[in-house]
Amino acid sequence: MKLLKDILYRTRIDQVVGATNTAIEQIAFDSRKVVPFTAFVAIPGTRTDGHEHIADAVGRGATAVICERIPEEPAKGVTYVKVSNSAHALAIMAANFHDHPSRKLKLVGVTGTNGKTSVVTMLHRLYRALGRKTGMIGTVETRVGQRLEPSTHTTPDPIRLNELLAAMVEERCTHCFMEVSSHALVQDRVTGLEFDLAVFTNITHDHLDYHGSFADYIKAKKRLFDELSGEAMALVNADDPNSRVMVQNTKASKRSFALHELADHRARVVENQLNGLHLHIDGHDVYTRLVGAFNASNLLAVYSSAVLLGEAPLTILTALSDIAPPPGRFQLVPAKSEVMGIVDYAHTPDALKNVLATLREVCAQGERVITVVGCGGDRDRQKRPEMARIAAQNSDLVVLTSDNPRSEDPMSIIEEMRTGLSTSDATRAYVNVDRREAIRQACSLAGPGDVVLVAGKGHETYQEIHGVRHAFDDVEVLKQALELLHS
Fold it and tell me: pTM score, two decimals?
């Protein structure tokens, strides 16, 4: 339990109606979760406005209401606090309510279009290998020590975030590694958290349906670094031309990593094969189980982060040599077939291009690459033609199919993808709207030595169609299709 006045500390208050020394037992921004002694925060959203649910929250027993517009007829016995930005206030309140757990462990935030999940997962696995008790918050998994928690968003809401961090402190975790999405930054989900290290992997075309322009997308990512304290560290990928923009206003100490440009930490790919990478990192040789130049960059980000956090370089590299890639990231699918199957989360043009470039590099002459790819519905439509173009130009054959169509017509999404195909590309492209059948078709088109890449969904174990999630696992479907070739 906390007093309202203590929870409101450092929020931007415009007006107060009522007493602030009232007791608060929880914070909520969903009126359905309100119980007596709750501080309800009304947040304007894209789909619904929390201000429309103030009466419901009060009816359920809310003791206080934090809002941007105080109702014309405030309820008796309820404290109303007017703020300029209720989403910002919610994040500050959540941190105050849980006694600022981010201050009590080493908090590392990783942002970028691609690589967030890989870097966060590998950092978590690295520190576990080093014998540390750690936490992780991300797209695939959220962990509090050894305990697995459900992941619903790349970056959870501020209440859930602080609950998780507080649980990590309770479990005596020393570090937490978390993905920080552009949506989370714009929506103030990580406001109030005190990061010790922020990492920038890269930025490419994505989420323009939400941010509106690439400039605004960059601005959103940049917020993570703009809000760092002078005691924090900022680590950026110098191979990305936008890395300088990310840290131009930061108060944090600046460090960099790169495969090609000058940087504080550098790596070179000595050999890249399907069984792993041989890298030269800061003067040391290391053999890893990961594949591809994009993973070399991810590994370098992990290594550089650990060095900045105080670990010994040789200790880091020894542990990294045995770390496996995260689920759904260039994941080899075992089967008795002579055709190789790979599942990857690549759902942006740049990520897809990187994966296909890696396959071209490691495949022997005469071995074909057959790609199954789709695009999600209710998301950035601008990238659909580009995804199809990249798939066709970097594969021998392509099967265009559904991803998560959500509320859209799957065939309409595919038609938009097809506009990116040239006349010659179109002759090597098939269309199969049923994703399961598309994967089977790709496998049937493959011959001995060929590679079938299923891109876009990676670790996901569902397919969302017309608002309903159906069980669907690319890894299992691809494995079954490959086994049929052998039978």
Answer: 0.89
